[in-house]
Structures are given as C-alpha cells and as structure tokens.
Amino acid sequence: MKKTQLFLSGLLGLGANPVKVNQAAGLYHVHQSEMSTIVGQLFENYQLEGIAMPYTIQDFQRDYVRDHLNLLSPDEVLQRYSPDERLKNLSPLERLRDLSPTERLDGLSLDEIKAWLESQKS
C-alpha cells in the first residue's frame, strides 16, 4: 500500500481498504476547492509513491517541506536559523573568505597582530 494511501486511510478512518480510499479520492475531486492543502498533497502523492511502513503526519510534513522548499528564497530559509547555526558547518576559511584584510583584523589588538606577524617570521 502506498505511503499516502496508508496515511489517508488512517486520517479518514478508512482502514486499509483500497476501494474506500479510491472512493474518497473520487469525492475529493468533487469538493476539491474545499479541501485543505495537506489533503490535496496526500492525494497527489497517493498516485506516485509506495512504502511498506506507517506514514505519520510528521513524515508527511517533512516530505512536504522538502518537496516545496524551493518555493522559498534562500533568505527566507536562512531566517529560520540563528547566525551561530548558519556558521556551524562552515570552516574558518569559508567564514573569512569574503572579508577584507581590515575586516579580518577588526577585533584583534595591536599586540595580537604584532605577535602573529612575529610568529610568521620564523
């Protein structure tokens, strides 16, 4: 049974009866404008995918976001994360790549800069 069919069966209380699920799908087309986005997506997936394990609402939500994330701009996606979370997977070189030399040195004392320069001479 397909993962969407399994979820839909549970959602609508249809059990594992494919005939009832197909009847519900037929009724869906009659009342399509009244149905929610989530049920519409379930019926779309019902025709496409198969899986042999229970499919929860959390599974559906994760799949739905993954399938539709491209509708958001990168900025809209990044707003969800704190600066620390965004930087967590970047190497120090990646974090510094677009900074000017002045920006790289900002925050360092003159003594720290001199000490680093001395360490480079040896």
Please tell me about this protein's structure.
The chain is mainly α. It contains nine helices and no strands. It has helices at residues 3-12, 18-30, 37-46, 57-68, 74-78, 83-87, 92-96, 101-105, 110-121. Helix 1 (3-12) crosses helix 3 (37-46). The protein starts with a helix and ends with a helix.
Please give a handful of descriptors for the protein shown:
122 residues, mainly alpha, rod-shaped
Detail the topology: elements first, then pairings.
Elements (H helix, E strand, L loop, with lengths): L2 H10 L5 H13 L6 H10 L10 H12 L5 H5 L4 H5 L4 H5 L4 H5 L4 H12 L1
Helix pairs in contact: 1-3
In short:
By secondary structure, the chain is mostly helical.
Overall shape: rod-shaped
Number of strands: 0
The biggest sheet amounts to: none
- Write the element-wise H/E pattern from the N-terminal end onward: HHHHHHHHH
Specify the structural class.
mainly alpha
* Helix content bin: 55-70%
Gyration radius, in Å: 26 Å
Classify the beta-strand content into a percent band.
Answer: under 5%
Count of DSSP helices? 9
**Uncertain stretches:** none
Distance between the termini: 69 Å
The mean pLDDT is 77
